[in-house]
Prior knowledge:
alpha+beta; 4-stranded antiparallel β-sheet; two-stranded parallel sheet
Amino acid sequence: MNKYIVFIFLLIAFSSKGQVSVTLDSAIASAMRTHPQIQFSQQEIEQQKALKRGSFNIENPSLGMEAPYGKKFEFGVQQNFQNPVIYIQQAKLGKQNVLLSESNQQVTKWQLIRNVRTVYLNMQYAEIRVKQLSYQDSIFHNLFVAAERRYNAGDAGLLEKVSAETKSKEIENFFKQTKADLQNAQLQLQLITGLKDATISSKDEITKTTTTIPIEIRFDSTAISQSPLLTYFEQNTLVNKQNLRLQKSKVLPGLSFGYLNQVGSEQPTNFRLRYGITLPLWFWTYSSQIKAAKYQYQMSQSQYAIAQKTYSSEYTQALNDFSKYSGSLNYYEQTGLKQAEAVIITAKRSYDAGEISYITYMQSLNQAFEIKLSYIETIRNYNQSIIELNYLKGQ
């Protein structure tokens, strides 16, 4: 007897292996730990920090041997330095590049969070559709079986049988498609979160997202001021502005120091020091670099302006979607769902009493189920609009 009990427990364990229910928060946390984009953005930050430490890049010294009188070679060394202002500007540019890479990491994180939320929502949507269509498939299949029996018994016409079969096959096809959509959504969640389980399901069923956003809200230019992507483009302008300052500073003269033994060890004073400055005489080279940096700075300003306009448009669209789907949900919650339930109950009662035909009964059921499916889709669209609003606001 104990052997059978052990066998049953093992069977349950193996049958449930690879199946896991995840919450949205755990899915986001997993993506943050394992997604290559997060690792790449962190590596980029470390790279820029390493480059910043090399801002004080002194030229290699020049070592040589000279024979001032052609008799004996003497050792000499020469060291050139750029103007100190250049090193300062390079350090500032390095700091701005570190901030830019950190801004890029924030963009990567928020885009990943939005993508995980969207994929998770799509999986929830597919799950509830599978559940709903499974129920519909069962009902219409049973109606088809009953119609076929009635037809074989001579109690129903061919039209009733064909209509029942057509509707049953249609729902069955939709059911198969939705199950394929669910498998695809599960795969997408696995890929983006790094979860290796064979089957993933959502911990909670799809519901209307609770939010404090008022339906009558209007566009506010400050609403997206915390957007990670806009912050990135703004920081990019600061990087290019600092690079322009750096290129301009390169026209400043540098410094040169050296030690040369010009006279030989037999002379009473055999040390000779050399001091000088380096002059940027080839102005066309510096001029072209300054002009290129200036255009790059102007281009970054244009990119920032384009991003602001694009975000304004996307934010306005997201607000409109939020308002639109909020109104639709109010209809379904206050009227639509109640009417759908009333249609199902009344149609069944009327059909059982022989007051309506099979065709009318099937049409009534189909209408009610379409209302329920539309309600589910509206919840998905409503939640998606909130995801977009939160992303655009950096929340």
